[in-house]
């Protein structure tokens, strides 16, 4: 995209992407279900929330339930929309939606895509929040989802 005015001219690269979702899945015991996967950009595994791309014709809520089930084998019975953030407004056109899904239980095995290698971790919510606080969990969209959750919880 090229922007021009009388005193300014610039070119920008803009990436059109579908909306994404992040899920904060909590068990009845106040544990959180997380995914660990290798991220090629930083060349290391990261601990993250389950999530993914919203498919055409699918709502962010439907995507949240689907991605949680596919990536972890867990499902819950109460879904709360915590809002959305701009994924990276400098270059992306999309938003990332965050859903809290409560009372999650394992109901099936993972159903991963061919390129997904995901390890599932379940830990006390407070332990996860401590990892975020220390910077051990550093994916920006995960940290944004945690902020949305903490604001909702207060």
TrEMBL record:
Coiled coil (UniProt feature): none
Domain Nudix hydrolase: 16-145
An example molecular function term from Gene Ontology annotations: hydrolase activity
Swiss-Prot/TrEMBL keywords: Hydrolase
Keyword Hydrolase appears in the UniProt entry: yes
Required cofactor names: Mg(2+)
GO cellular component terms, semicolon-separated: cytosol
BP GO terms, sorted: nucleoside phosphate metabolic process; ribose phosphate metabolic process
Catalytic activity, reaction form: GDP-alpha-D-mannose + H2O = alpha-D-mannose 1-phosphate + GMP + 2 H(+)
Transmembrane feature ranges: none
Keyword Repeat attributed: no
Family: Belongs to the Nudix hydrolase family. NudK subfamily.
Protein name as it appears in the record: GDP-mannose pyrophosphatase
């Amino acid at each position: 995209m090229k922007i021009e005015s009388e005193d300014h001219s610039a070119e920008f690269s803009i990436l059109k992407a579908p909306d994404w979702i992040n899920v904060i899945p909590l068990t009845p015991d106040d544990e959180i279900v997380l995914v660990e996967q290798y991220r090629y950009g930083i060349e290391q595994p990261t601990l993250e929330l389950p999530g993914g791309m919203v498919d055409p014709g699918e709502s962010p809520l439907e995507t949240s339930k689907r991605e949680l089930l596919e990536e972890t084998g867990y499902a819950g019975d109460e879904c709360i929309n915590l809002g959305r953030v701009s994924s990276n407004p400098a270059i992306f056109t999309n938003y990332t939606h965050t859903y809290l899904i409560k009372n999650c239980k394992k109901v099936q095995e993972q159903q991963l895509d061919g390129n997904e290698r995901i390890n599932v971790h379940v830990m006390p919510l407070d332990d996860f929040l401590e990892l975020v606080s220390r910077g051990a969990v550093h994916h920006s969209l995960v940290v944004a989802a945690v902020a949305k959750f903490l604001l909702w919880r207060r």
